[in-house]
Amino acid sequence: MADQTITELALAFGRSMSEMRNAIRQHIQVKLKEHNIDITFELLEVMALLWRKDGINQQELADIAIKDKSSMTYLIDNLVKRNLVKRVEDEIDRRSKRIFLTQDGKLLQKKIHPWIIKTYENATAEVDASEIEKALNLVKKMNKHLKK
What we know:
- By secondary structure, this protein is mainly alpha-helical.
- The protein is built from six helices and three strands; from the N terminus they run H-H-E-H-H-E-E-H-H.
- 10% of the residues are buried.
């Protein structure tokens, strides 16, 4: 591994991050299927953001999720159809919509959150917090340079 260039290491690092994301996605999709929960991983990602910050503006949600406006509209439409979220006009700017969890959306968190936590606990079973902090700082630094 010492013979690899920094570029080759960065490529391998990016590939490994993608592989981890896919493994997490597959694990969670299996759990959703086992429990007959009709939600995709992409919808679940939006729900997870709302579980952290309910009532967020639709555009801000798209920015955090790194989705374009039309993709986020499609995802929110699907969540509304499933009665997991509702759109509410912003009191200050009526053109803007805020997205709120419904009671079903809050109940879904209680069902799914333990699986998600367990998935990440399994993934980090032999990892120190300091290793994750270093990796996180590295990714932030690389992203900063890519945005220049």
